[in-house]
Design brief:
single chain, mainly alpha, Farnesyl Diphosphate Synthase, 2 domains, two-stranded antiparallel sheet, 16 helices, globular, binds farnesyl diphosphate, Squalene/phytoene synthase, Isoprenoid_synthase_dom_sf
Length: 344
Amino acid sequence: MAPEYHHGMNEEISVAASYRFARRISRRSGSNFYRSFWLLPRSKRQAMCSLYAFARITDDIGDCDEPAAIRGRWLEWWRQTIAINLINENESSTIALPEGPIGEEPKWAARLHRQAQEILPALRHASTQYKIPSRYLLEIIDGVLADQQKTRFDTYEQLEHYCYLVASAVGLACLHIWEFEDPLPLEAAVDCGLAFQLTNVLRDVVEDAKRGRIYLPRQHYEQHGLCEDDILTLRRDNRLRCLIQDEIERAKRLFDSGWRVWDSVHPDGRPMFSMMWRTYRRLLTRIEEDPTRIAVCRITLSQSDRIGIVSQHFWPPSFRRLPVPPVEVAQSRQQADRKETTRP
Ligand SMILES: CC(C)=CCC/C(C)=C/CC/C(C)=C/COP(=O)(O)OP(=O)(O)O
């Protein structure tokens, strides 16, 4: 039977109004990233808001209180909604919402329908204007879908694939909005997403354990003599310190590689990219100062870290004086050069 779609259920929302909805969702998220959107020219900022609102809605479906099977079915619905409205669709056609999962209308489903109607005109407009491949949007949903089915990772490669979906795909979509000089810096963008997500995994290790989730790969914690229970009930011991230190070193290498995005990004996007990169890189530095503290509290940036990063990026003379590459990257490049020259 052909699927049933609701075309323009309510009054069609204009693109301008839709961008306003997307901005509201982005602003209310309280994300570390939202401030950096203001470094973009208006049209790119609006597009970023629509991308962020899309990612927020996707995450909210994945994080809601319903059983995993229901969350999964609504994510499938959301994936289908994105596919039918963004792939080969004429920008002027009305928004179509497929039927929701039969017999499953949790309370928030009405809000989800409304949010979909509200942000899709903007997301479709931004995707067309900046030629964002819809593949990336679908991959982001696939990442959140995978999160419903899997709460453990055996190998680093499995974690890496998950991080690609939920973070690198976001970065690749951002690059289309910022614009870049051909060719697309694919490897650097993927590494940058992996670096951000790995930092996120370290920061949120306690919160995730409370939800019964372990993102650190089993392969890694077993190497340090830890088992699943140790990760779920974290204790500040030396084994945990070594494990976290290893992950920090891995994340640092990914940050270094991720910085290479800078060379290809259009000048419009550079301040935002730099601010995002330096924010998350600083977070990693804060984690490194006392690695096992992640077992007792969620590490955040201090007020002075935040003010410093904001003023470095929003005041143009200060932005121009920022070291490129950042000191962390320059230092590791120097170390690599030294190793190279002392090699027999
Ligand atoms: C090329 C490039 C720019 C790659 C990076 C792509 C990117 C922005 C990935 C986001 C991954 C991430 C840690 C999201 C958390 O968002 P959140 O809003 O929940 O963050 P918060 O919890 O720190 O506020």
